[in-house]
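Sequence in, structure out. Go.
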Amino acid sequence: MLLFAAKLVFYYACSIPFIAILSVRQEQKIWKRVAAVNEEAESEAEAEAKKNNNVVDADDNCFIAGPLTMIGILKVYIFNIFWMTGSLLGTLSLLPMWISRGCGSSVELEANAVMEKLCAMGTHMCVVGNVEVKNRELLPKINLHSNANANATSTPAPVFIANHCSQLDVSTMYFVLRRFKWIAKQSVRYIPGAGNIMVLSGHIFIKRDRDRSKSSEQKKSTSTSDLYEQSNHAIQSGIPMMFFPQGTRNMVDKLPFKDGAFKVAIDNESLIVPISIYVPPNAWNSWYPLNKAVNVNGIRRFLGMREIHNGNVRADDDDGDGDGDGDEIGNKIVVTVHEPIRTTKNTDRKELKEKCQEIIYSVLPPLYHGHGHGHVHDGSKMDQSTKDQQQKKSD
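Output:
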């Protein structure tokens, strides 16, 4: 029996390298669009400069974000391999405790606050580097030992919200929060390792109604109702909820927020804590961690790349050759915690949403820009197809 279980786990683990490829593809799409926006921004900057008879100059502190280079692709792949493998090992280590406690939600604390946190932070530190957290003192105090099966607490747990740029947002939040619950698609449950530990942690999965006798609107209503019910239960039990109200990952458009997180906060009269996540354009394409262990300049010279001086390289070679120019500038992900906002049953949801949206986007610097001139693509010049997609989702 044990031999059969070991073989089953082995074959299950063998699927991790293939699932990781799909994750790489998803991240590639995001950064590919970043490159396209960069080209548009650069063209506009050059046209404006010519119109005003100015010279477009690429200074040493300005660089251009592009698509994932081979280094970036490799790092995304390794990141997902580490995360899924670590999560699977963490799940296996918790199984004896889970069984001895009668299964159910008996190891939620250990799975979320220990195993998930160790895996996320360890993977992030190994592949991407450290995370800077500003205003950590503004984070509300949380009872780490809150039980999801317990009765409602006197003070509901807070609701955390943040912008969503990349896969890195997920691991980044473990540097900020000690315990919380996500909302994820049902399909995430079946990702090797990562899905297993999320189940043990008690995260909330969106359940799709499969009843064919119901209309699409009725199915959506049922799924949404279940989502709110589980979120409210977690909040009343003292376990915070974490939302990405944009609803999708996007690096270049400041998307309007959806209502879900704000409805949960208002219904439970919880504190809502806005958080801004800045993912630098070179987060994946940097030479980290090689720059900590080897002579990167020697490698760059050998490969015909520009040398790094005082941590900077010039970015005036945007020829699409994927040489990683600018990949040592501002590599650190920065998280800014904002002042918590108290809500009541009478709080206006629309005003709250707009206020949080303004707060979160206010501290994010111009992410992507052309040579020497800071052009920000914030969604104001969004193409019609993108607008149509957003309208369809909101409907």
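Check: The radius of gyration is 23 Å. The chain has a mean pLDDT of 79.
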